[in-house]
Design a protein that fits this description.
With about 300 residues, this protein is of the alpha+beta class. The protein is built from eight helices and nine strands. The strands form three sheets. Strands 6, 7, 8 and 9 form a four-stranded antiparallel β-sheet that branches. The protein is rod-shaped, with a radius of gyration of 60 Å.
């Protein structure tokens, strides 16, 4: 009886152990950062993603646990020759992640080494298309080009290239000295151009000033000419008016008006002669008294307005 009880207890314990082992082998909990590659009799069957999954116990097993987190290759240095035959070294790194775990474990053994080799070839090809100056200033475009071509190469391994970075461009001392001399020459050239532009601008401003002065002088001459023309016009109108008045007087008073005008002009001439600064002594002929007397006689003989 005791032997039967012992056997029953052993069978129960064995059955319980088998059930626990079956559940352990059949239920898989996959972390968020990983995927499980399931094999059946050594052959790939499926990939388990994050969460709770059930497989066939004793037949299926977890062949590989693959991290799907983004990874970074250690920085590596690549020696390249630019289009202008300058040898430089590029420090490069690559960021990638596994998107197809089955291909990453069954198609290639060393993913990092494969990406390193492919990246070296693509970086050399991309850098060889550029000159040294363009290489130092075109890192962003080079990074995009390298990432595109590297993605094409890594797709067969189930890898996504998320980013490539050229972290530094290393050149030798001789090339640095040549670049320094070239930079100094470029600075001198720009300084010479700036001085030439300044001199040119100074000459332009001086010419503009002279042109402005000439325009103002021309305006002044034109205004003066207009004033002279206006004065001549006014004088001409005054002479015409005077001539008209004298003509009317002659027409009305005859020879007496003519004699009056002649005597008047003679008196004005004597007055102008006496007003001259260089005149010291004026000898007047005796006829002048007669002229003045005759002028008075003529004035009294000419009829005044308002009298008949």
């Amino acid at each position: 009886m005791e032997i039967v009880d012992v056997l029953s207890s052993s069978v129960a314990i064995l059955f319980t152990a088998v059930v626990v082992l079956t559940l352990y082998l059949g239920i898989k909990i996959v972390p968020q950062s990983q995927v499980f590659v399931i094999e059946r009799f050594g052959k790939y069957t499926k990939t388990l993603t994050a969460g709770l999954s059930i497989i066939v116990p004793y037949l299926d097993r977890v062949g590989y646990k693959v991290s799907i987190l983004e990874r970074q290759l250690p920085e590596f240095t690549i020696s390249v020759i630019t289009r202008d035959n300058v040898e430089v070294r590029l420090e490069t790194t690559v960021f990638y992640r596994v998107v197809d775990a089955s291909r990453s474990v069954y198609r290639i053994q060393d993913v990092g080494g494969a990406i390193h080799t492919a990246a070296s070839s693509i970086v050399r090809s991309a850098a060889g298309k550029l000159e040294l100056d363009d290489l130092q200033s075109s890192r962003e475009s080079m990074n995009a080009e390298i990432a595109t071509f590297l993605q094409e190469a890594a797709e067969i391994w189930g890898i996504e290239i998320t980013r490539t970075e050229i972290t530094d461009v290393i050149i030798d001392d001789q090339t640095k000295e040549a670049q320094r001399q070239q930079l100094n020459a470029e600075r001198e050239r720009r300084a010479a151009i700036a001085r030439a532009e300044g001199e040119k601008r100074s000459i332009e401003l001086a010419a503009d000033a002279k042109l402005y002065e000439a325009e103002k002088i021309a305006d002044a001459v034109r205004i003066e000419a207009d004033a002279s023309a206006y004065a001549i016009k006014i004088n001409a109108e005054a002479d015409a008016e005077q001539t008209r008045v004298i003509g009317e007087a002659i027409e009305k008073n005859g020879q007496a008006a003519v004699n009056f005008e002649i005597m008047k002009r003679q008196v004005e001439a004597i007055g102008m002669l006496a007003a001259g600064e260089s005149t010291k002594t004026i000898i007047m002929p005796t006829e002048v008294t007669g002229i003045l007397g005759g002028l008075e006689t003529l004035m009294s003989s000419i009829p005044k307005k308002g009298k008949t």
